[in-house]
Amino acid sequence: MKKKRDIIRIVHLIGAAAIGTYVYSPYNQLQWFTLVMQLLIIPLLTLTGIWLWKPKWFRRSRKVATLIAFAFIFISSSNTLQAQNRLKGGAGGLLIGFKTYNTATHQFFVPEGSPVLGDNLLQIGGEGYGLLNRWVIGGGGYMSQGDQVQEGNLEYELRGGGGFFNVGYVVYHTRELLVFPLLGIGIDALGINRRIEEDISFEPNRFLEANYFIVRPSLDLGVAVDWFPGKKGLKLGIRTGYNVTLSRGNEWRHYGGEITNPDLPDNDLDGFYVRLTVGGGHFKTKE
Known about the structure:
Structural class: alpha+beta
């Protein structure tokens, strides 16, 4: 919890600097800067501020709050749409970022009194998309790596992955910049892996490793900003958004061991994410 609050405070400091720059500098005349403020900075600060103020309420109402925020993003973007220029091109590359997730359900499988698992997941993967007029069609996948704790001779580690098919629409562009909201559908998975240290003796047929995990269909609600500096095909980008689990329950998959307690916790994989992308691509306006 404290680590998550520290990250959000850093986000607020960066957001405050961006707002100050927008209000007190001549950069507020730049259309793309105004759009970034409307689509990214203001919604992000609003949602994280609500979380800091009322975390319990936000956990109960986070889906409603998320949908309201993204409705706000689309309404804001509709006021800044350019003439409907047709675009063609595409891009792809590597992505790296983090996702916040409530790990309490996975803590269930760690012995009582063990260190608490952190809520942040490191995500590494790749993505790609093509442009069809102003529509963005593509997808991507990633691996998730979470916290690791040790209790006696046992080591527990969070890890998983996911993949999404994405559709977006370019609401703003210059010769070097694309801005588009994204809607994705796919699967998300996360498990807790239990391992026994290799330098200890063990009985015959004893499991050295076990994994308890969940796989859930999910929606990805996000906003993307891609920058294509120069003419050499380099692409730099940022993605931020929220994953919404479409189904939930207490059905856990497992291998290498048995689940003997029938009162398993309900689970979901909802959470905010921020990812950076590095890759290549190009786009141009159709004549």
